[in-house]
Amino acid sequence: MNKKEKHKQDLVPLFDEFLETGNADTIVNYLLANSNLPGPRGNLELAVTFAEVVEELFAEAPEQLWRFCSQLAVISADEAPVNDPKEFLPFCGACAVGALGAVSAACYQEALTQLRGVAGDLRWRMREGVAMALQRLIETQSETTLTELEGWIANGDWLAMRAVAAGVAEPLLLREKQTAARALALHKKIFDRIVSVNERKSEQFTALKKGLGYTLSVVIAAIPEEGFAYMEQLIESRKQDKDIRWILKENLKKNRLAKNFPNEVAALKHLLQ
Predict the structure, then answer these.
(1) What CA–CA distance (Å, rounded) separates 74 from 82?
(2) Separation between Cα atoms, residue 131 and residue 70, nearest integer Å
(3) Which one, of 127, 115, 129, 125, lies nearest residue 70 by Cα?
(4) How far apart are CA 33 and CA 29, in angstroms?
(5) What is the pLDDT along the chain (273 residues), one digit of tens a residue?
(6) Which of 51, 72, 94, 167 has the most other CB atoms within 10 Å of its CB?
(7) How many of the other CB atoms lie within 10 Å of CB of 210?
């Protein structure tokens, strides 16, 4: 029995109790006890399993499960600070909100709205939870979700853009060429926003910049011809922009590009000199 199977075996009876009594204390205590926090890596297997169990049971009590997960997702940083076991609760909540939006048309729009709010959280784990949730929504409702995410970019919020970039940077999703093309288009829109703004000293922009330091390479690996052409275009038009240069250099270091496309990477590195 692997970790996810063990967590599912533990969680199912706890959820059965919750659905019968309305008391979620045993679920919450299980998540806290197995969060792996404080520590460098939260228990991702448990978070994924939690979302899967909620998804499987959703038809039995949709309102009760939605309310529980959405309440978890908005637990604040004051109540659940970074690296505290309690931070794992909103992380799991965000993952589950994405899962429920993916399987329920009634919850879809509300899930996106809630995730849009959580995307602005300064806790990095919460931003990762939003990215994982978006990936689940893209998996089941690709076209609609990708179109919705364009609006997250248009409002100019750096952390919302970071959520979009991380959300589409999933190799399994990018196997679908249309999704890969849309992911590259979303990245282009993000870069357009960046180059239109001179004030880039905020903590929020730094988070976006660091995220783009890897997400662009994930997308380009899936759609290399168009992706490398766009990188070349960025270099030619924004070679003196230190933030753009940093992002491009970081992506060219990634093995997914350096090992699989050595000639293209070498040519772009030469242009950056």
Answers:
(1) 14
(2) 16
(3) 115
(4) 6
(5) 899 999 999 999 999 999 999 999 999 999 999 999 999 999 999 999 999 999 999 999 999 999 999 999 999 999 999 999 999 999 999 999 999 999 999 999 999 999 999 999 999 999 999 999 999 999 999 999 999 999 999 988 999 999 999 999 999 999 999 999 999 999 999 999 999 998 899 999 999 999 999 999 999 999 999 999 999 999 999 878 999 999 999 999 999 999 999 999 999 999 998
(6) 94
(7) 15
Q: Which of 92, 89, 152 is closest to 117 using CA atoms?
A: 152
Q: How far apart are alpha carbons 220 and 203 in whole angstroms?
A: 26
Q: Cα 170 to the chain's mean position, in Å?
A: 9
Question: Could you count the other beta carbons within 10 Å of the beta carbon of residue 194?
Answer: 20
Closest CA to 189 of 159, 218, 221, 149: 149
Tokens of 151: 């609006």
pTM, two decimals, is: 0.95
